[in-house]
Amino acid sequence: MYYIYTLKPNLKKTHMFNLIGVYECKIDAKGRLPFPVAFRKQLSEVLNDGFTMKRSVFHRFIELYPMCEWKVQYEKLVQINRFTTRTDDFIRILMAGAKTVELDPAGRLLIPKDLLEYSGIKKNIVVAAALDKIEIWDKDAYEQVVKYDPVEFEKSVEEIMGGSFNK
Fold it and tell me: Are 125 and 32 in contact, with CB atoms under 8 Å apart?
């Protein structure tokens, strides 16, 4: 008899977020984002722990993780074998521009210049919930991404969600 052992990282979450909302805001000349009050309320338990802000992988926007959620992502990353060039390069690129940030006393987040440049954010932005993280977009870029063909979206819903809950 053979036994197969798999190692699973300890990814115990202390908080479960169901972030909801899409808000339009304007950043000031210094790159400060007035963090939406609705998100402050939803994250009130962990707001003082700060956030990790980083480049997105698939589009040009900024991902904002509450620190407890970032720790879950980080634990997944440290499980990856770092002894290959491809993996090492992947992690380097994935983490490029990642920073820890906190709300200032006025309830604003300072978006670092390199992340503003990467995301193409000028002044008008969209701050959108994405399950356990928040996305920060240039408003025009966000509007382009959320445009959809209803027929194609219906196909995606069937393909992605169709059998998910029927097990």
Answer: no
Residues 95, 22: contact at Cβ < 8 Å?
no
CB 69 within 8 A of CB 61: no
Contacts of residue 22, defined as CB under 8 A and 6 or more positions apart, other chains included, come to 126, 127, 128, 129
CA distance 32 to 20: 22
Q: What is the CB neighbour count within 10 angstroms for residue 64?
A: 23
Give 128's contacts (C-beta < 8 A, 6+ positions apart). Answer: 21, 22, 23, 134, 135, 137, 142
Confidence of residue 164 (pLDDT cuts 50, 70, 90): low
Q: Is the pTM of this model over 0.90?
A: no
